[in-house]
C-alpha cells in the first residue's frame, strides 16, 4: 500500500513539473490519503500484535 502512495506522489510531482495543477493536486491528495491509511493500519497491526504478546517481525 505504501508503494501506491509513493506512485501517486511521483505522478503528482511529474504533473506539477509539467503544469497540470488539477492532476497534480488530485494525485497528491490520493497519495496523502493512501499514506494515512497505511499509517493507521500499521498502528492497528502493532497494537494487535502487542495484545497477542508477539514481537513484531523485522
UniProtKB/TrEMBL annotation:
Origin superkingdom: Bacteria
Regions crossing the membrane: 7-27, 33-51
Pfam families for the chain: DUF1328 (PF07043)
Keyword Methyltransferase: no
Alphabetical list of NCBIfam families matching this protein: PRK13682.1-1, PRK13682.1-3, PRK13682.1-4
Biological classification of the source: Bacteria, Pseudomonadati, Pseudomonadota, Gammaproteobacteria, Alteromonadales
Family: Belongs to the UPF0391 family.
InterPro entries reported in the protein's UniProt record: DUF1328 (IPR009760)
Record key words, sorted: Cell membrane, Membrane, Transmembrane, Transmembrane helix
GO cellular component: plasma membrane
Name of the protein in its database record: UPF0391 membrane protein HNQ55_002901
Amino acid at each position: 500500500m505504501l508503494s501506491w502512495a509513493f506512485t501517486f506522489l511521483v505522478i503528482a510531482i511529474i504533473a506539477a513539473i509539467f503544469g497540470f495543477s488539477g492532476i497534480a493536486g488530485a494525485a497528491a491528495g490520493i497519495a496523502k490519503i493512501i499514506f494515512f491509511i497505511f499509517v493507521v493500519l500499521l498502528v492497528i497491526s502493532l497494537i494487535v500484535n502487542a495484545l497477542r504478546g508477539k514481537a513484531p517481525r523485522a
